[in-house]
Amino acid sequence: MTTTELARPGRTEPVAPLGRAPRPVKTSTVVLTAVAVLVGVGFVLPAIWILIGSFRPNAEILTTMSPLSRHLVIPSEVTLENYVHLLVDSGFARALLNSFIVCIASVAIGLAMSAMAAYALAVYQFPGRNLIFAVIVISFMVPFEAIAIPLAQQFTDWGLGNTMIGLILPGVANGLAIFNLRQYFLGIPQSYREAAMLDGASEPRILFSLYARLSGPALTNSALLIFLGQWTAFLWPLLIVSDSDLQLAPVALAGTFGEHAADYGQNFAGTIVLTLVPAISMFVLQRFFGRLSIGSGEK
């Protein structure tokens, strides 16, 4: 029998099948769910408004806010004028290319340096190892804004102002990436390294052919940390670069706001462009975050 009806003495109505009694929904659960939905909508609406605003004429962006109407979310005219003016008529396209160059170079150099530093801290036993690791941990806890101005002055004294190298170098040394990779490397059994050494492999080959291949999620995470740090950088390029041909996209986007006027349409279009790049990167690389560490229990 798939169902069983039980009857109490003196009663003929059936009782719900065993193990299938519906659970009553708590009032607190309903309230919390409603609050979560409202909070989510509150966060999403400004993003939707910016997305819609990037496709409407600049003159209509603020006029649709008072009085409130359906035109706030439904534009009366859909146009690509804001994107065309931003990418063709302004210097944003060049700044966007500069941002890509700086980010790609920072990821390539920074990931290699972070992996080597993490490998040394995870594998070798030497005096002061824990102290060095503690300094690295403290380094990414200090806000960059606290050291940006004296660091920019030092870079200027070194002749690195208005150069791509000056834009790339601060993003290369990423303490959080080193911490992330070091913790992952500790989960790789030492027996793998010992077996590779018995086969005659050198330390660089062990790092890049063994540890790097087993650390896909950690390398992807660290690469994203470096990339996002450089992609969203605003204060550093503002301090170190005065040449408009070398300016990065976030600073160039701020140029859509003038002293007496602001082009909200271009600003919204630039915001969407700058947001799409990390969003697409996260979407493409998300599959790497679900992989488990090999030998994560061994230290």
Automatic annotation (TrEMBL):
Transmembrane segments: 30-52, 96-124, 131-152, 158-181, 218-240, 268-289
Record-level GO BP terms: transmembrane transport
Keywords, comma-separated and alphabetical: Cell membrane, Membrane, Transmembrane, Transmembrane helix, Transport
Annotated PROSITE patterns: ABC_TM1
Topological type in the membrane: Multi-pass membrane protein
InterPro entries reported for this sequence: MetI-like (IPR000515), MetI-like_sf (IPR035906)
Region (Disordered): 1-22
Domain ABC transmembrane type-1: residue ranges: 96-285
Protein's name according to its UniProt entry: Carbohydrate ABC transporter membrane protein 2 (CUT1 family)
Primary residence: membrane
Protein family according to the UniProt entry: Belongs to the binding-protein-dependent transport system permease family.
One of the record's GO cellular component terms: plasma membrane
Pfam families: BPD_transp_1 (PF00528)
Cellular compartments annotated: Cell membrane
Superkingdom: Bacteria
